[in-house]
Amino acid sequence: GTGMGLPAAVRDRVAAVHRGSTLSERLRLYDGWAAFYEQDVAALEYRAPHLAAASLAFAFPKPHAGARLLDVACGTGLVAWELHRRGFRCLHGVDGSAGMLERARSTGLYQELRLCVLGRDPLPAPAEHYDAVTVVGALGEGQVPSTVLPELLRVTKPGGFLCLTTRSNPSNLRYKAELEAALGQLERSGAWQKLLAQEVEYWERATSEEESARGTGYISGVVYIYQKYPVPHLEEG
């Protein structure tokens, strides 16, 4: 078969998390996965953190160092590494897994880290607090519901950016359609404007034949960048 040459343990851990039936069970699985997470995503050739950070840095107009960013579902800090490399220094993170947060804390890349289960808890931040919000890898079937979008918008400054990713593999297509409907609805209501929807063919290695895109051994994914309205006018002068 295709290069499903992934260690069985990696495949099993990924499948378990995506299969986790209840929220508490999934969070427990993530806690247990924290110790193996970075080696597993390296085996998966998981490119989302890199692609998301590069897209956000490209969209972001002003110097990055002073901008305040919220990394939602931050996991072990993979997105923070990528943002930090691109000059972002003021990073806050939230995640539903205490085990993941412990790893993120050990990177020293975050100014602030908080436990927060998205879809159940509000984000621990005041309105219009962040210059940008990222949700990389967590928007998917059985993970973070697409109903969280207004909460992400709430904590974003007017003119601020939202960088979201989801997968395009067969088992996530229903969720992706729901997400895109919700994204479009918010755009039509004047909440934000779409700057980018970039489909990426080699997103990460597939964990099963069924999920693989046309037998490549990989699944595809997409990076979205939105800008919150109203966009502040630049001062003339």
UniProtKB/TrEMBL annotation:
The protein's superkingdom reads Eukaryota
Q: Which residues form the Methyltransferase domain?
A: 70-160
Q: Which region is the signal sequence?
A: none
InterPro entries from the entry?
Methyltransf_25 (IPR041698), SAM-dependent_MTases_sf (IPR029063)
Q: Where are the transmembrane segments?
A: none
The UniProt entry, under PANTHER family, shows:
METHYLTRANSFERASE, METHYLTRANSFERASE-LIKE PROTEIN 27
In its UniProt entry, what is this protein called? MET27 protein
Biological source species: Hylia prasina (green hylia)
